[in-house]
Structures are given as C-alpha cells and as structure tokens.
Amino acid sequence: MSGFGVQVRDLTVRYGSTTALDAVSFDIQPGAITGLLGRNGSGKTTALSVLAAFLRKTSGTVLVDGEEPWENPRVMSGTGLVRESGDVIAERRISETLRMVADRRPAYDPTLAEKLLDMFELDPTTRPYKLSRGKKSAFGVVVGIASRTPLTLLDEVHLGMDAPSRYAFYDVLLQDWLDHPRTIVLSSHLINEIERLLERVLVLDRGSVLVQSDADSLRASGMTVTGASADVEAFVADRDVVARQRLGSTAQATVVGARPDDERLARESGLELGPVPLQDLFVHLTDPATEAAR
Asked: Which one of 3.40.50.720, 3.40.50.1860, 3.30.70.270, 3.40.50.300 gives the CATH number of domain 6-217?
C-alpha cells in the first residue's frame, strides 16, 4: 500500500499556558483517506502542523513513515500540508508558485496541475492576492492534489469554495487517489459532503482523541428509525436519541447503540432501519452534554 503511515503517542503541544493537544495518541493508516473531525479549537490544525513539521511538539512521539518529521528532509518533502489560504506566495504568479512546488515535490504532476487550473478557471499568470477567497482555496486544492505527496494533509482547504467547486474537488481528489494511492487526511466541518470519501475517521475534542475508527464501524454504531410516529417513539423510548424529524404522521429518529433484536422488533412494528449520517454522530459525540454523561 502506498503512502506514509503515521504513529503518534502521547503528543502534547502547548502555547504558553494553553494546551492545544494533551497527550494524544493515534495512528493514520498508509494509503487510506482519513477524515480529521472536530469542533473549532479541538486541535486539528495543531496536529496537522506537527505532522508536517510546521510546528514543534512540546512532548511525545511522532513518527511519519517511521521517522521523526521535524527537520527531516525526506519526510518533509513527502508531506504536504495545505490550509484554506493555500500557503502560497501571494505576490508571485500562480505559475511561479507551481514551479517552486515542482522543485520540492518529487511526485508533482504538471499535467494534472494544468487540468485543475482549467477546471477551477484559474489563470496561471494571476497573482494569488488578486483572487477571491474561493479562487484562493481552489489554488490550494491544485497545489495539494497535484503535488501527490505520500502524506497529503488538507486542512479545511475547500471552505472558501462554492458548492459546485467543492464537489468537483471531492470527485477529482477521489479519482486521483484511486489512480495514485497515497495517504490523505481531510479536515473539514462539512461532514455530510466528505463522508463518502472516508475510510477512517479520527475525532478530536478539546485537545484529546475522542474517536478513532473505520468509517463503516462508526456508522454502524447508530441507526435511523422511520415509520409511524407512535411506533417510532415506542421503539426508541429507552434509547439514546441524537436527532428527531417529523412530517405529519411519519417520524424518523436517529439513535446510538444497536441491539441484537433490532431488526426483528422493527419488522414487527413496520419500521424501517437505516444508516446514520456521520454528521449526526459527530454532533452527538462532541456535545458537552454527551461528554458529561459518559
């Protein structure tokens, strides 16, 4: 399997009196697309910055492809972190930035970069400071995908883009990953949009690891129940309900926690069971009330 793997053990990062990450441990599997999820201030950007050697850790062990990334030329050349701003030189033409990327990223594909520039309607002679927020984000996407680094870290890179551009980004990212497997970590608040891409999920909450799981197992930890309102309410009466919807006499409830006889009980009550969107599970898991009940 292609791509760099990541092993993090007891990673702590402090900014003065603020602890951004508190002895966190997690793995990122090589060759997989992992969703890094968390509310604002959860430590996502800090974690990615440490992996990319943008930020020095306070303590703990961080291994990227088996080696410490800090001041490690081999690991750093194979790790690309792109944030929403694109981390490009604002006063230089797009074409100049891409030439610099080509010099530093061994797997960079200029043909793919040209294709993406056309897709997002970016003129290579333009200077990034003249671009709109959405176009700046699109240029960051171009850099992130075309670099094809063995560890590609995309930190909310698509937030400034409009919906058609975001969906074009998801499609081209997935297709290029299938054609050229590598490790991708995608940090996003738009969970409903990206969940189809994810094999693994890592959830940070206030500087700690809350969940580390494959996406299918996490989805299977809950279910939606749809049917007549009275029957739905009876089915979920003693369960952990994280969301409810109602339309006339029909209701849908989202619950966490499956039971062995769920399918039989649902069938007998004329109810339909379905999967839970990751967005609903994420909201539930990171709800302070949920944490207090643990």
From this structure: 3.40.50.300
Name the fold adopted by 222-275. Answer: Alpha-Beta Plaits (3.30.70)
Average pLDDT over residues 246-251: 92
Give pLDDT tens digits for 31-85: 999 999 998 889 999 999 999 999 999 999 999 999 999 999 999 999 999 987 6
Q: Is 268 exposed, middle or buried (0-12, 13-18, 19+ CB in 10 A)?
A: exposed
Place 290 in a pLDDT band, splitting at 50, 70 and 90: low
**Cα R_g (the chain), whole angstroms:** 21
What is the Cα–Cα distance from 89 to 286, expressed in whole angstroms? 36
- The yes-or-no verdict on residue 294 having pLDDT over 60 is no
Domain ranges of the chain: 6-217, 222-275
- 233 in the Ramachandran plot: left (φ > 0), alpha (ψ -120 to 50) or beta? alpha
Beta bridge partners of 51: none
